[in-house]
């Protein structure tokens, strides 16, 4: 995907190159059967001599556009393009609090999260380091960042439920995991971009605050994308007592906003798959400036050729 290239701070618009008053003539020339000058004059309200002048202006405008594009090309303009990342570290932090036992997402929240997490990890570029953190009352680095996907997949399969929810603790553990990422073997001193993907279905009940953890992530330059997983009507039953376990989307959205990540919500396994796919696409690419001289030079050539051909075609369509 490319961002628009600009000139003087504003996107270039080919429509602005059509001379004033020539647009009606251009519309007629581009559609319908050939017309005489008299017919065009009658339909546009212009004199026959003015019709010919407008055609001359259109041909000249095409040449001017070609020259303008060539001039931009000679200036070696820059445009933003999305290119695949070669390396990055992604830490997946998963809530394993008791509320993840809720069955409002089939077959239950944790099982659905495990399935989607495995698919997400499998689709990441092979040179990406992937780590795994589980958190309930405390955060634990289960798998330090590695390119060995089998280790991460086994860690995901082995997730077990525990009491309490400490989202802040989970995020601190994820930041600790980022620090354990191996250096780039081709450039050991180069910093490797890192991101955290944090999935939770509840709100913090113990441990350090979400705000403190989010500020720590922001200071470290690590964006955190959050996934609020579950439905407002989710419940669990403990010792015969049914307890509501709704998702607190606001807490997670605040973390994403503070750290420069994205906040997502998913109420089903299918929605969670889609969220992971979107996150994978954004993590897997980076926007960078690239010289677009070739693009503009090619456009200049096309415009000049089309202008020349257009002049022959248009003059052939206008009867005396």
How are the SSEs ordered, and which strands pair?
Layout: E1 6-7, E2 10-11, H1 23-30, E3 35-36, H2 37-44, H3 48-74, E4 78-84, E5 89-95, H4 109-123, E6 129-135, E7 139-146, H5 149-157, H6 167-179, E8 194-200, H7 210-220, E9 224-229, E10 235-238, E11 241-244, H8 249-259, E12 263-266, H9 269-283, E13 285-291, H10 293-317, E14 318-319
Parallel strand pairs: 3-14, 5-6, 5-8, 8-9, 9-12
Antiparallel strand pairs: 1-2, 4-13, 6-7, 10-11
What this model shows, in words?
The protein is of the alpha/beta class and 320 residues long. The chain has two domains: 6-80 and 290-319; 86-283, von Willebrand factor, type A domain (Rossmann fold, 3-Layer(aba) Sandwich). It contains ten helices and 14 strands. Mean pLDDT is 79; it is low at 1-16.
Could you give a short description of this structure?
The chain has 320 residues and is an alpha/beta fold. It is 44% helix and 22% strand.
Name some characteristics of this structure:
320 residues; alpha/beta; Rossmann fold; 10 helices; disordered N terminus
| Average pLDDT rating | 79
The end-to-end span amounts to: 47 Å
Question: From N to C, what is the helix and strand string?
Answer: EEHEHHEEHEEHHEHEEEHEHEHE
Largest sheet: 6 strands, mixed
Counting DSSP H or I runs of 4 or more residues, the number of helices is: 10
Task: Give me the CATH superfamily of the largest domain.
Answer: von Willebrand factor, type A domain
Count up the domains.
Answer: 2
Identify low-pLDDT runs: 1-16
Q: CATH architecture of the largest domain, please?
A: 3-Layer(aba) Sandwich
């Amino acid at each position: 995907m490319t961002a628009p290239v600009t000139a003087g701070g504003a996107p270039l618009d080919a429509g602005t190159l059509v001379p004033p008053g020539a647009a009606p003539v251009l519309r007629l020339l581009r559609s319908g059967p050939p017309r005489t000058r008299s017919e065009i004059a009658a339909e546009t309200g212009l004199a026959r001599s003015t019709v010919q002048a407008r055609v001359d202006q259109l041909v000249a405008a095409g040449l001017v556009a070609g020259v303008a594009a060539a001039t931009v090309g000679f200036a070696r303009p820059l445009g933003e393009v999305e290119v695949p990342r070669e390396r990055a570290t992604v830490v997946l932090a998963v809530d394993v609090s008791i509320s993840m036992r809720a069955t409002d997402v089939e077959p239950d929240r944790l099982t659905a999260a495990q399935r989607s997490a495995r698919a997400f990890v499998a689709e990441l570029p092979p040179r990406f380091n992937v780590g795994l953190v589980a958190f309930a009352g405390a955060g634990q680095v289960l798998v330090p960042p590695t390119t060995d996907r089998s280790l991460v997949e086994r860690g995901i399969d082995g997730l077990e439920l525990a009491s309490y929810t400490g989202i802040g603790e989970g995020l601190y553990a994820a930041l600790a995991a980022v620090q354990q990422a191996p250096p780039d073997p081709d450039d050991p001193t180069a910093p490797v971009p890192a991101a955290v993907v944090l999935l939770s279905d509840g709100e913090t009940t113990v441990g350090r605050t979400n705000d403190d953890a989010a500020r720590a992530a922001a200071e470290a330059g690590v964006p955190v994308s959050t996934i609020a997983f579950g439905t407002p009507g989710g419940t669990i039953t403990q010792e015969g007592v049914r307890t509501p376990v709704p998702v607190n989307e606001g807490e997670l959205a605040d973390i994403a906003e503070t750290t420069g990540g994205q906040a997502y919500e998913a109420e089903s396994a299918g929605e969670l798959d889609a969220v992971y796919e979107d996150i994978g696409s954004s993590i897997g690419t980076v926007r960078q400036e690239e010289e677009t001289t070739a693009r503009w030079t090619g456009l200049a050539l096309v415009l000049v050729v089309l202008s020349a051909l257009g002049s022959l075609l248009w003059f052939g369509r206008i009867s005396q």
